[in-house]
Structure formats: C-alpha cells, structure tokens
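Lecture 7 notes: from sequence to structure.
We start with the chain below.
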Amino acid sequence: MWEYSDKVKEHFLKPRNVGVIEDPDGVGEVGSLACGDALTLYFKLDDAGRISDAKFLTFGCASAIASSSALTEMIIGKTLEEAEKITNEDIAAYLGELPKEKMHCSVMGKEALEKAIAHYRGEAIKKVEGKIVCECFGITDREIEKTIREHRLTSIEDVTGYLKAGGGCGKCHEEIQAIMDGVFGQPVRIQPGPKKALTNIQKIRMIEDTLEREIKPALRQDGGDIELVDVDGVRVMVRLRGTCAGCKASQTTLKNVVETKLRELVTQDLVVEEVVP
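Predicted structure tokens for the same chain:
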C-alpha cells in the first residue's frame, strides 16, 4: 500500500482544529458520503481581516483528515487574499508530500477553502459544466481536462489520484485517455492491460488493510466500528459494532462508503454484506 510521511501520520492521529465554528464568517462543503470523502471547512475573521480561527469536519481516509488538519494550520493568521493563493500542492508539500493516489484529498481541501471564501464574499461558485465521464464519482470531461492541464497529468492513475475519476468500475478509462491525448495533442501513454487477478490471501489482506486505514478511523470518531467476518469470492461479509450496529444509516454506510472504498482500492467487483449478530 502507500507510504505516508511522518507529518501525515501526525496530522491523522492528532488532527488540529477539529470541530464547528458557531456563526462562522465562511463555510465550504465539498465531497459526499457517496464518494467516500466529505469535508466541511469553517473560518472566522478578526477585526483586521485575518483568519483568527479555522475548523473542519471530515469523513474520509487518513490523507483526507491530515490534509484538512494541515489546511487549517496553514490558513490561520492569513488574510483571505493570502489564503486563496494556497494550492493543493502547497498542502501536500506541508505534509511532506502525499501518495499520488491520495492527491485528491489535498484538492478537496483547496476546493473547500475556495467555497468558504466565496461564501464569505457572497459569491457563487461557478459549476464546472460538461458531460459526465466517470459515472461512479460524477466527474465531467471539463473537470478532467482542467485538472490534466493544471497539473500536467500524464496517466490515468494520476487522474484518479487527483479526481478519483476512473477509480470505480473503470469503464471510463478509455475516455479519460482520449481527453488526455487531446490535451497534449498526441497519445501520452499506452493504456495498461488488465491487472493480474488477486489471490484470495492477497484480497483478504488488502480488504483488512483498507478497512483499517480508510474506514475504521472515521467510524470510531462517532463511536462505531466494523469487523471483517469472511470473504467468499466477491462477497465481503462484515459486522458493524458500537453505534453503527442497528443504525438507520448503516446500509448507506456499507454501500456508499465501505463498498465504494473497497472497490476503489482492492478490486472493482466486491459486494459488501452485513452479518447480523
């Protein structure tokens, strides 16, 4: 799996500025539970127009939590003009870099900051128009092209890392490749062949690792937990614990969060089923 810097681990295990600001000057919300990552950023200005406080709430992986924590530290003390110059690369660099597969977490932080500043100024965020290319995560061709141009991305893996596009069923890979070829005026990379099938032991280890790194930390923040019971082919049987057990939203969590994350990081055909005690 991925190698995380010491600073990412530090901000994940001991995140700064978690919470809600009552009566904030700016609020920005990005992502959704359906894609596995969601972030709300709040800030408060002092009389001099500088950000005196910033807090966040997030549902996501270690990189999402660390990126959000780092962003709040980076913007406190800055004017809005200074804060809006912060890029997602600045967030990643502050953390000692992020794995390329996790760059979308820093992008999410940058987008939340943009929305929070726009909220303060009474401006509407201009929606990116275009045709949906990645149906799994609702990403359009305009978004993909814009991200490829801005970050000089040259592989489908890089696009997935920044936007998640292509990280679900994989049906959009060919179209993403075509967009990339159009940006650079020529083919920039040969489409990779099908991945070698995982052995059952490899699959189980990857599922356990994904649950441990990506799912359990967020559930435990709310007093819940999840346990891997068994893996039978593409069926992943889990048991919910704590506040998650019997929760009315448990099936939404299992399908829109757990199953989506496992399909993204392990293999695309996994189906998550709950085992009731």
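Points to note: The longest strand covers residues 37-45. The beta strands are 26-32, 37-45, 51-59, 132-134, 139-140, 224-232, 235-242, 271-274.
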